[in-house]
Amino acid sequence: MSRLPIERRNAPSQRELLMNRKLTRIVALTLWGCLSAAAMPPRLSIAQQSVTDTNASIAAHRVPTQHLPNAVQVSSQVISGGLPEGEQAFAELQSLGIKTIISVDGAQPDVEMAKRFGLRYVHLPHGYNGISTERTQELAKAVRVLESPIYIHCHHGKHRSPAAAAVACIAAGQIPAADATAILELAGTSRNYQGLYRAAIAAQPIASTTLDALEVDYKSKVDPPPMVEQMIAIEHAHDHLKQFAADAWKASPKHPDLDPAHEALLLREHFTEMLRGEIERQSPEAFLESIRDSRDAAAGLEAAIRSGLPHRARQAFVNRIQANCVACHRRFRDVPLSE
């Protein structure tokens, strides 16, 4: 076999050697950069960081937000928090990547505002005394089948929503049952709400076959019972008055349209409404006594504000109403469902 002739070449010059070395360095740096970029994950938004892996179990942590009270990441798919109020709050939900909002509060959700930002609202209210088996199953199926990420809220985001989120995520198999207490403590859930703690601690994964067979018509709004409706109105007026007291009875920049005397008047009327009709007929006398005293205190607060009495006099009425609320809740509202 004949060999092919080998082309004879002159040895490379010193200049060629330097150029080759420089080119080799450039190629090596370029390849290193490409490989590093390929190896490093892309920067993610808050929502992407939280919800990229639907099966990952994460440690519960606070979510930094400006317009969403007490936001806590409960699972890779679920954030718990307080009521979103106004365009800025819904815009922040949208920026977090939220697709579905679940309200466990009794108040009517702002469905129209949610639609403006492409969000779906689902209303699954429950009380402070715990979460029923039926509601647990509905919440578990919701976080399993509704478009995620999901934001679950109550009013303040401290008690009902973290309990609901923990129960839902545990029952749906998204987080370990052992995480329940830590989630409630992180959110600041008061130990006075024994029913909420019991519901969270007792939560266990529900079989996929059970959730698959469960038929739920998820509505954007449900009508609360008369008692719940009045309690919601009382809570809102009371919250406004407590904020006025904390701000030395000055107008709030957040709610410049609110007037303290008018809020006291509304609170008095809400308490008065509790003493009429079905609520009065079905309530125990001890409960009605607390409502009557709170009504009188609200009337005294209104008079104190209109007559220009100093802060100390007004605060005495606020404290009296607050004490009645705490005692009443402990005796009647927060009793666990199992008792």
TrEMBL record:
GO terms for molecular function: electron transfer activity; heme binding; iron ion binding. SUPFAM superfamilies: (Phosphotyrosine protein) phosphatases II, Cytochromes. Gene3D superfamilies: Cytochrome c/b562 (1.20.120.10), Protein tyrosine phosphatase superfamily (3.90.190.10). It comes from the Bacteria. One of its GO terms (biological process) is electron transport chain. This is Cytochrome C. It comes from Rosistilla carotiformis.
